[in-house]
Design goal:
single chain; 2 domains; 14 helices; 9% strand
Amino acid sequence: MRGTYAIYTPPISDFFDTVCEWIDGHVTGGYIFGPPRQGKSRAVQFWIERLLTERYGPLLPFFRMNQKSHDRFSEVEFLTELLGAGGHRYAQSGSRGAKLDRLVKLYATRARNSGSSLVVLMIDEAQNLRDASYRTLCNLQNELDELGVQLIVISVGTQVLVYQHSAFVQGGDMHLVGRFMMREALFRGIIGAAELGFVLRAYDEGTEWPQGSGTSYTRFFFPSAFEAGFRLSPLASDLWGVFEEMAPPKMRPQLSVAMEHVAKSVEAIIRTLAGDAAAIKISREVLVRAVESTRYPSYMQAMAALPGSFRHVN
């Protein structure tokens, strides 16, 4: 079950609201950052395009790209990756100029066919972008502007994006700041027992396993217990208490738990209780072992040692 699903969470809802605000405001670019393991990539991969389609229908051309890490920047390779993310059949061939021309035509055609003057490009793992990457995106925006199409670039990544913003400001690259980093938003983790309960209810009711089966996670793994009334959501208060106790003291007042640790804890609980007894009781010891198995304590110690926004993420 691991790695093949994505629970809808309050942080994803905040993320989506932010993206919609930027789109509706015709913001040319902004970045969303957060510590590793919060669920950013899951949100981008599984939820954002679906939610945008539900809200805007076919009127908003949307492209999504995962930015790979490279030892050296190559504009030709960057343009190839952008074309590949857009599904262009000739992404691999041609010169730098030819690739940029194809990309402009791809975006402009998609906008024209949608009856839109906007195109949204979301770049995940955007901490891997180089200064030159932004200059290429600037050229792309300029070319599209001449065709009456506005390109909105939304970067999603780690705290490195904050440092990149500062570097642009200190280096006097305000045109890049103005285009791609005028807005910022934090992608936080799960905050409080109430939000944790929301997530656990998704396992009980809102998320199918296997996908398309119409059966929830809890019901699939514990059908007899589910019929007898067993649910994961009542564990929220006790499980949140374990997360609090295992967090460094200075982080507890503003505790934010990465979604990966929540999901892996739930998976560990399910594995521990494997079987289909009609009655299931989950002890605190089971919860403690489940959280420990995710390496949550060591992760939080590492986060506590970092300055700034990584430490206080809500």
